[in-house]
Amino acid sequence: MTNSELQPNTTLLDSIRNKLTNCSMNNIIFYCSSCGEAYSIPLRCDLILCEKCGKRRFMKLKEKYLPIIKVQKNIKLLTLTWVKGVEHKDEIPLRHRQVRRLIKTFFKGGLYTFEGLAQHVHALVIGNYVPTKIISEKWLSITKESYIVDIRKANSSGLNYVLKYICKPPTYFENEFVKYYEFWFHNRRVSTVGLFYNYHQVKIKIELLCPKCNDYLIFWCVGETVYDYPLCKPLF
Ligand SMILES: [Zn+2]
Ligand SMILES: [Zn+2]
Fold this sequence. Notes:
With 236 residues, the chain is of the alpha+beta class.
């Protein structure tokens, strides 16, 4: 979603509220070009603040990363903490660089997610045991402010723990909603380092096939508007 798609004369908060309320209430109707069958799929808001959409994101990421994590040994859960969350979205790229630097120093790779306004990062990392004290000293030298780290042994189910932070929207007051939305609209909340990296580059190809004749579904309708697939432009 872009800001230009927001309704004119409504505030961003109104628009967010609207989209959250209407998530999955309407359907997109796909038609099969060969046999003419119609299929309907719920129209989702895909907002970062939506719990329903968060669960879908969680399942997609789990499906993508579980196969590589399952074959790994030496899985650990690492939590890194800063003194406070960020005040401005432009500060997030620096936090990404700090996390990547720390993970690269000690481990073969990792997958991490930010919690809330980026005060904490939860990472699943692969590598040998490193004493907490050593990681803590390195974290302080990178951040210049915080030495708070936690590392513990895990297995592949640690992936659930790390991904749950992108599934659950924060329980902020509504005025914090906009801040949270704007921060993460421009920045990644989930990222990978090292041996996970290439997996992040693989785009999952989405193909919609007709369950009846197995041909591609080529256009869809939302209400009165008919869209061309896959160009996503209204046809008429
Ligand atoms: Zn068909
Ligand atoms: Zn939603």
